[in-house]
Amino acid sequence: MGKATMSRGGQATMAHGGQAQCHPAAKPQWHPMASENPDDKTSSFVIMLSMKRFNRSTITSNGQPTLSSDHGNDAVFRGAESKCGLNLMKLMGVLVVVVMGSSVLFSVSVVLKDPPSNVFWTLVDARNLDFQAQKAIQQEDPTQSVHVSKTQLLDDLLPSGFDEKSCLSRYQSVLYRRGTPRRASPYLISKLRSYEALHKKCGPHTDSYNKTVKDLKSGIYSSTTSDCKYIVWISFSGLGNRILTLASAFLYALLTDRVLLVDRGVDIPDLFCEPFPEVSWLLPLDFPLTNKFNGFNQKSQESYGNLVKSDSLGNLTGSLLQPYVYLHLVHDYDDQDKLFFCDQDQTSLQKTPWLIMKTDNYFIPSLFLIPSFEQELHSLFPDKEIVFHLLGHYLFHPTNSVWGLISRYHQAYLSRADVKVGIQIRVFDTGPCPFKHVLDQILSCTIKEDILPQINQHEPVVGPTGPQKSIAVLMTSLNWGYFEEVRNLYWEHPTVTGEVISVYQPSHEEYQQTEKQNHNRKAWAEMYLLSLTDKLVTSSWSTFGYVAQGLGGLKPWILYKPENQTAPDPPCRQAMSIEPCFHAPPFYDCKLRKGVDTGNVVPHVKHCEDMSWGLKLVEE
Ligand SMILES: Nc1nc2c(ncn2[C@@H]2O[C@H](COP(=O)(O)OP(=O)(O)OP(=O)(O)O)[C@@H](O)[C@H]2O)c(=O)[nH]1
Ligand SMILES: [Mg+2]
């Protein structure tokens, strides 16, 4: 990320520049996983308590929870038997077993049926979901197929008919969430089914695809060869950005009846399962323009902006009769590139068989400002704040290797907590880490907003003051320092409420390492794990945090961006909506041909909380 500059016509652009981030003072140091330290009594205590609760129930291979003999409980029963008489105790034991068993069975049946989403927002149900998650993970054969219910298809958001074993997350993810994602409109569901049919007809290696590629190779423009048109998404930028831009490109494909094809970059097939049935979304390796992708930039002749400029009138009329057009929607795009967001220009692009898009921006908010898309978008998304939430759940299913990272981590550190708190720290300043002002900001936000309890500085031990919740905090950061400080704080001091806080961080990669396979797997796993929390704190300007909040359906508390190495006051605020922010929107009225504040045109597109010139969708 970088600074915003105003360009001609009052349009703002983002200059990312170098990856400004918090660097360790010396060479990156690799610390041992502190949270695995057996001396960390805090974590062990929490786990021990939860294990006790869990051991009472195991789940059989047919998916039904049953009661197993917990050795500790057996001992209690045996002692009681000798005191009170065998038969009475047996009877009581059977009664307890029946009551507990039926309550667990009832709750599981509620989960598996089709519950209203708010039913999940209770601790009882959350634990039952954890039983399910536990079962899924504990299966001896992790690739064993699970029964697919309507709930697992996310209330028909997902198509049926996939091979379940090839992508376990598609069916198991619901077991880790408190409820299914928010409901899609029937219109969106039918649009997705139509898209899948189109993809099957036009996707890679179909007759239509082969014909259209043939024309492309020979440089011929033809609108009659095939009735299939394509949008090719180029893999570009950090993983958070790529997830948001892929969702944006897909929505654009839905709106313009194009087929989305995905440049695999270095890692796309390693991170995401195929989302469409039968025909791949991956661009074939022999696609004739692939070797141009890296070179496409703001100056490329084939870019829409430059084609507009080369028109003698400076203004295109009618259709663009090009075999392909490059859409440069990267943060450094200029006023002509931004005409992409105008109706008239969309008409020009309509007949071009191939659009090749490079972007690092979540540009969906500006699609909502294009009049010809307005009605369709309203029918697809009557609730404007769940656009990424739904598209994200439809498109992004972690591959089995990433799902292993997610499910094992969840199982080991998070599943038993009553409350899961996510804290995502992305620092864009350079200097020795951790910064004290960032740490101060994290603590003042979480305590002020009642996300974490205060510590008691004066007493070595504080007894419980009421029913105790276990709170697990999942921190993510490239740096280790913030986690270490927060964990130590809650280890070295009791909380004023007596609650015990366990703090975990999966990795500390120190700096972005896009070429390293495991690096991006971990980044994806961490975004996903954050999305499984109940309360989320994110950093300003971070697409990593946006993905987590969007998938999780969470309105995060956003830590304001520190200025001059000082913790801002207030330290954070809760987001208006769960939608990501478009960092570099155009500020242009296509009809009036002059600058306009696009955050002030319709009630559901507003400026972002963390970036005053950004745009985001909010529910009216
Ligand atoms: N594992 C891990 N990787 C991280 C974390 N924060 C940043 N990264 C890495 O750095 C990249 C940053 O790119 P994004 O995912 O777009 O996140 P962002 O916060 O928007 O950062 P920028 O795009 O660089 O401004 C990620 O994709 C990861 O590769 C983190 O907390 N955990
Ligand atoms: Mg980013």
UniProtKB/TrEMBL annotation:
User: What does the UniProt keyword field contain?
Assistant: Cell wall biogenesis/degradation, Glycoprotein, Glycosyltransferase, Golgi apparatus, Membrane, Transferase, Transmembrane, Transmembrane helix
**EC assignment:** 2.4.1.-
The protein's matches in InterPro entries, at most eight in alphabetical order, are given as: XG_FTase
The way it spans or sits in the membrane comes to: Single-pass type II membrane protein
- The answer to whether UniProt assigns keyword Mitochondrion to this entry is no
Q: Which domain of life is it from?
A: Eukaryota
GO terms of biological process kind: cell wall biogenesis; cell wall organization; xyloglucan biosynthetic process
Say yes or no: keyword Nucleotide-binding present.
no
Q: Which GO terms describe its cellular component?
A: Golgi cisterna membrane
Q: Where in the cell is it found?
A: Golgi apparatus, Golgi stack membrane
Map out region (Disordered) in residue numbers: 1-37
Q: Which GO terms describe its molecular function?
A: galactoside 2-alpha-L-fucosyltransferase activity
Give the enzyme's main class according to its UniProt record, as a single word. transferase
Membrane-crossing residue ranges in chain numbering: 91-112
Q: What is its main location?
A: Golgi
Instruction: List, alphabetically, the PANTHER family matched.
Output: FUCOSYLTRANSFERASE 2-RELATED, FUCOSYLTRANSFERASE 3
> What this chain does, per the record?
May be involved in cell wall biosynthesis.
Q: Give the protein family.
A: Belongs to the glycosyltransferase 37 family.
Q: What is this protein called?
A: Fucosyltransferase
